[in-house]
Amino acid sequence: MIVLEKRPQPSKAWSYATPLVAVLATMVFGGILFTILGKNPIEAIGTIFWEPLFGEFAFYYRPQLLVKGAPLVLIAIGLSLGFRAGIWNIGAEGQYIMGAIFGAGAGLAFYPIDAFYVFPIMVLAGAFGGWLWASIPAFLKVRFGTNEILVSLMLVYVAEQMLASVSLGLLKNPEGFGFPGSRNLQSYDAAHNAELISGSGMHWGVVTALIAVIFAYVLLNRHMLGFHIRLTGEAPRAAKFAGVNPARLILFCLGLSGALAGLAGMFEVSGPSGVVSIDFNVGYGFTAIIVAFLGRLHPVGILLAGGLMALTYIGGEIAQSQLGLPAAAIQVFQGMLLFFLLAFDLLTNYRIRAARSEVA
Amino acid sequence: MTTPLLSLQGLTKAYPGVVANDQVSFDIGEGEVHALLGENGAGKSTLVKMIYGLVKPDSGTMLLRGQSFTPSEPRAARADGIAMVFQHFSLFDALNVAENIALGMENPPAMGDLASRIREVSETYGLPLDPFRTVGDLSAGERQRVEIIRCLLQDPKLLIMDEPTSVLTPQEVEILFETLNKLRSEGTSILYISHKLEEIRTLCDHATILRLGKNVGECVPSETSARDMAEMMVGSTLQTPERSGREFGDVALDVSGLSVPSPSEFGTALRNVHMTVRKGEVLGIGGVAGNGQDELLGVLSGEIPTAADAIKFAGQPIGKLGPTARRKLGVLTAPEERLGHAAAPDMSLTENALLTGSVREGLENNGFLKWAETQSFAEKIINAFDVRTPGPENAARSLSGGNLQKFVIGREVLQDPDVLVVNQPTWGVDAAAAAAIRQAILDLAAKGTAVVCISQDLDELMEISDSFAALNEGRLSAPRETTGLTVEEIGLMMGGAHGMEVAHV
User: Fold this and answer.
1) Is position A18 within any domain?
2) Domain count, chain A
3) Residue A356 located in a structural domain
4) pLDDT of amino acid B238
């Protein structure tokens, strides 16, 4: 018989090793899955992990890694702060959409003025939009004790309707021949979140994501507020005893994660996407939840996890087009990654040992 | 020689890192009240769990009336006539007495029949109880009756009682003892677990003393002095804390007309509480658990805000201030629940030192943490209070209860408080650590700190407090000087028998 035994202390070694073991297990079981689908597992996994980084067309895929990874990291950093405190913002997708709408809306309001202040105003407006959307569940939770998971999630669908509405109405391109969607911000220089170094994929969103990682690291490890966030997550009663005001913490964590998600949406709409359209959002807000946990809610871990997730996205697309793997198989593959991570995570706090035979 | 009811021979049970029971042997005779005596962690609970089928022994045998007895689960033990009343009740507050009892039965009879059987048993044994009352409304003593009746309905041969008096007032204890005496006279054996020596001397025929998992002696309690039993139990001579004559200063903490609704549904509201504590004075607050102790601590720590004027520190109203602001002024507290309230289980001792120490020890600078200073503060606590741990980087949950308690109390004591409020400072702590904690509290008072000690251990309160008051259903009795208080007076302050009908046996 096998028994789980609680460790007196969480194991440091395992907390670092689990992500690696999880990636390995995902490769093994993903390989089995691909074999069953009739593909060469080594080739498939090689395509997913190798091709985007070092393959023939890596010069095209590498910038894509930054473009896809940055919003994931930016959103996940914000979410992780709340998750650390036991505050579950599931609606980052909605906040991301609202950030894009507010940011693009602010930019388009100045069209066609070409001034240096347009872009900063858009950044502020994007953050404000996300903050506003996340503050709704925060306020309702503080005031009426509603469940922030449900409210934030449902507001995603409201945001999607708003997105459809502005794409067809308020922000519709007057010169767009009646097609839905806004003017392309890429062709409005003052509002364009262009690559900082051409061909590198490095845009302001990537820079902001890196700053957010550093900010979160300092906050959690060196600041009282970060300590209170961690304390609230680990022992809510002890946090109250330590003098934490739970309401203020909820407003802060939800508000900040909303603002970061809003920023991500704004950088996306003014850069890689360029257009506010009905299908603007592609699930970054939900995937970021996986990234946050894959990174063990640790800022540096999230940075790595965001990169890994972007890699499986891009590698998955390559595998789809080159090997004809179904999109669902790639999603299962990504799901496995989270599953194995959570499963092996158990080993940080527990050890497995064979039970001794019991003497009656 | 007659066959004993239950004979334990060489029972051994080891857990990783600790031998809970090592070759324990003793007999329980028919119709005997047998005491199992020992400190916290001596292995009493493990032993009893083996008898009740919750834990399997690694080696050793049990004989029930000469027959081999190896219960694989509590159900099997119950079928063989073993019943147990646990220290912590397993009752549903929202259900009534009969429903609660039916839930624990294999084949519960119709509610009407069950109710009449409950009435019958409760009257026979002098435990009056209405089967249709909601358990949430019952006092601790009455809840215990529910558990006892639940056992008696099985017609047990051996009744195991785990620390049954820890939740009772002295008057309620008396009622319980009459019931137990009646059971004994009918031939039921009782295994009575306790560390309260005077009780055991009054009630029990025989006592087995456990220390560190070993049977270290047996005695006839009525013929052995409490001190001798205590020294067998602890294994060394006991040190009683020293109390020097003290002079009290000005009023440091003044609570007047404090009323607070309970934060939880079956909690206790505080009603019109008055008390004053002077500098250098130790006010002991007794009372049965669940009479508002947690709420009182919460109100004094600032976790539950209240009217500003209800609590004054050195004349300044502080009722509306939160925990941090109160710490800044010098009002410190140590809650009862170590893990999860006073300390965060998975955080290191350094982080836990920061938890309450940040303000007074200057461990932050504009919100930025000074980890080096925090670590030295944690080390200072560890050294000053002899906390046994490899170092401050260890998680709070890796410490034993006594060591963590020393850390939690030490953390507040070393911050040089003007007012210190502690709740159950020595709960679940071994005798040596308890003596050290009590001494630290007395030393602090000698330096002029006003101390409020909330505890359910009356001996402890008598030992360290200058004045005594009791909490009863959220009301605080008028404090009285400790010297000269009798047990009966204390019992009455604690609410007497809580209106429980006296046993008629």
Assistant:
1) no
2) 1
3) no
4) 56
**β-pair type (B450-454, B282-286):** parallel
Q: What's the pLDDT tens digit per position in B128-175?
A: 888 898 888 887 788 888 988 989 888 899 999 988 887 788 888 888
Give the model's pLDDT for residue B136.
Answer: 82
Rounded-to-integer distance, Cα B486 and Cα B479, Å:
14
Give CA angle at B414 (B409, B419), nearest 5°.
Answer: 75
User: Is residue A231 included in any domain, yes or no?
Assistant: yes
Give yes or no for B286 touching A (CB within 8 A): no
Tally the C-alpha atoms within 13 A of residue A137's C-alpha that lie toward its C-beta: 31
Residue B145 to residue B329: CA distance in whole angstroms: 45
pTM for this entry: 0.80
Beta-sheet strands, E only, within B289-390 = 311-313, 316-317, 331-334, 364-365, 368-369
Establish, for the pair of chains A and B, how many residue pairs have beta carbons separated by less than 8 Å: 81
DSSP readout, B438-462? HHHHHHHHHTT-EEEEE-S-HHHHH
Residue A309 sits in a domain whose CATH number is 1.10.3470
Angstrom distance (rounded) from CA A68 to CA A291:
12
Check if CATH label 3.40.50.300 holds for domain B251-493.
Answer: yes
Highest CATH level, class, for B6-234: alpha beta
Q: What is the rounded radius of gyration, in angstroms, for the C-alpha atoms of chain B?
A: 24
Q: Is the pLDDT of residue B304 over 60?
A: yes
Residue type, B439: Q
User: What burial letters (b/e) apply to B358-367, b meaning 16+ CB within 10 Å?
Assistant: bbbbebbeee
Of A224, A238, A359, the CB nearest to B343: A238
Q: pLDDT confidence of A359, banded at 50, 70, 90? A: very low
Q: What six digits make up the tokens of B176?
A: 């319980």
Which of the 8 DSSP states describes residue A243? T
Query: Among B59, B354, B356, whose Cβ lies nearest the Cβ of A359?
Result: B59
Decide: residue B412, CB within 10 A, 0-12 exposed, 13-18 middle, 19+ buried: buried
Contact assignment for A234 to B323 by CB distance below 8 Å:
no
**Residue A73 confidence (pLDDT):** 97
For residues B201 and B44, the answer to whether their CB atoms sit within 8 Å is no
Domain hosting A287: range is: 60-324
Are B320 and B308 in contact by the 8 Å Cβ rule? The answer is yes
